[in-house]
Amino acid sequence: MPLDFTPSEEQRLLSESVARFFEREYSFEKRRTLLSSELGFGREIWARFAELGWLGIATPEAVGGLGGGAVELGIVMEGIGRHLALEPYFSSVVLGASLLRRAGPAQAAPLAELARGKLLLALAHVEPKARFELAQVETRAAREGEGFRLDGRKAVVLDAPSAHRLIVSARTAGASAEQDGISLFFLPASAKGVTLLPYRTSCGRRAAEVRLEGVMAGRETLLGPLDGGYALLARTAEEALAALAAEAVGAMAALLALTRDYLKTRKQFGVPIGSFQVLQHRLVDMFMALELARSTSAAAARILDDGAADHRYRARAAAAAKVQVGRAGRLLGEEAVQLHGGMGMTDELAVSHYFKRLATIDVLFGNADFHQRRFAALDSAAA
Predict the structure, then answer these.
(1) How confident is the model at residue 1 (pLDDT cuts 50, 70, 90)?
(2) Exposed/middle/buried for 346, CB within 10 Å: 0-12, 13-18, 19+?
(3) Residues contacting residue 257 through CB under 8 Å, at least 6 positions apart
(4) Which tens digits make up the pLDDT trace of 163-196?
(5) Dmax of the chain from CA atoms?
(6) Where exactly are the structural domains of the chain?
(7) Geometric angle at alpha carbon 226, from 224 and 227, rounded to 5°
(8) How confident is the model at residue 382 (pLDDT cuts 50, 70, 90)?
(9) Given its phi and psi angles, is residue 200 left (phi above 0), alpha (psi -120 to 50 degrees) or beta?
C-alpha cells in the first residue's frame, strides 16, 4: 500500500522543537562531561524532557501523555541519535512505556509517573544464551503461595543502574524456547534477591547484568496476562526496532555532516581534500546509504502506526529498517573514520563516539544479518 511520508503540522513542530532543544542544550562537550559522571546522564536534561512532553509522547492523553505513536517517537529518537544524548529514553519510554501501555489500564499510574519524569524503567529480558531470539527465556517464575519465586540471570539490561523498577521476563510454563509460557513481572530494582552488576557498554553507556535469586513477586506484579508476555514483547520489539533505526539515522546524518565539513577544511597539496573527485564519490556513497536508511526507517514507523497493518507486514517493515540502518551505519562509520584519518579514532573527536554508538545499535534486538534472515523467512511465509 502507498505510504504518505508528509508530516502533520504537529509532527513538524515537534521536529523543530527537538532540533532547537538539542542545538541549544546538548553540545558534544556537555555530553562528554555527562558521560564521565557517576550517573552517566543529566537529571536536569531528563526533567526538561518531561517538561517538553517527550516522556509521555506515546502515552494516552488520559494519563497525561500526548497520544502519539511510532512516528513521534522516531522524531525524538532521531534527535537523540544526532546529538548522542545519553538519557535513558529508549529504556524507559520506548521499551518501558510501550510494555506498560499494552499491559492494560491498571498501569495508568506508573505511565503518568514516567511522563512526569519521576520513574525510570529497564527491561530485563535478554539472557546469556538467547542471542537475538525473544522466546529464549530460561529464567523461571515458580508458583509459591499466592505469588511467584523468580530465579535466573539477565544480561545487557540497558540503564538498569539508574532504574527505579525492572520489567522482568520469566517462564511460568513451557520449555525455554517456546513463545507460550512467558510472563512479565514489574518489580522494584531494589527488591530482595535482585543483584545488579553494572558496567559500561562499548559506547560508554550504563547497563548491568541482573541476577535473580529467590525474588518473591506477588500476583499484583504481573504485567499483562499470565503466560502471555511474549505477545507484549514482540509488539514492543517492533517499536524498538523502528526507534533504533530512527536513532541511527540521526547519528549517521551527524557523521555525514562532520565528514563533509572536515573535507572542506582539511588541505593537501594546497587545496581542500573535498575537491578530490574520489573523495566526493565516497561522500555520495555515504549520502545514498543514509537516505535509503532514512526512508526505510520512516516507512517502518508509519506502518507501525497503521492500525490496519497485520503482524507480518509490521514485522517485515521493522526488520527491513534494522537491516538498512545496520548496513548503512557500518558503511558511514568506517568511511567517516577513514576520511578523518587516524584522528577519527580518538576519543576527543565526535566521529569515534558516533561510530561506537552505531555499532551498538546494530546488535540491539538483532543485528543486520539476523533481521535479513528474519525478513526472508517472513517473506517466504507471506508467499
Answers:
(1) low
(2) exposed
(3) none
(4) 999 999 999 999 989 999 999 999 999 999 999 9
(5) 79
(6) 9-118, 123-227, 230-382
(7) 110
(8) low
(9) beta
CA 2 to chain centre: 27
Q: Say how far apart CA 108 and CA 85 lie, in whole Å.
A: 27
Q: Which three cell numbers stand for residue 240?
A: 524498538
First-residue to last-residue Cα distance in the chain: 17
Pick from 10, 160, 27, 150: nearest CA to 95: 160
Q: Report pTM.
A: 0.95
- β-pair partners for 165: 121, 188
Has residue 383 got a pLDDT over 70? no
Q: Which CATH class is domain 123-227?
A: mainly beta
- What Rg do the C-alpha atoms of the chain give, in angstroms? 21
**Structural fold of domain 9-118:** Butyryl-Coa Dehydrogenase, subunit A; domain 1 (1.10.540)
C-alpha cell at 102: 499494552
Give the tens place of pLDDT for each residue, 245-304: 999 999 999 999 999 999 888 878 878 877 788 889 999 999 999 999 999 999 999 999
pLDDT tens-digit readout, 69-94? 999 999 999 999 999 999 999 999 99
CB 164 within 8 A of CB 120: yes
Res. 360: pLDDT tops 90: yes
9 is written with which cell numbers?
A: 503540522
The CATH number of the structural domain formed by 230-382 is: 1.20.140.10
Under a CB-based contact definition with an 8 Å cutoff, are residues 74 and 303 in contact? no
> Strand 222-223 to strand 182-188: parallel, antiparallel, or no bridges (unpaired)?
antiparallel
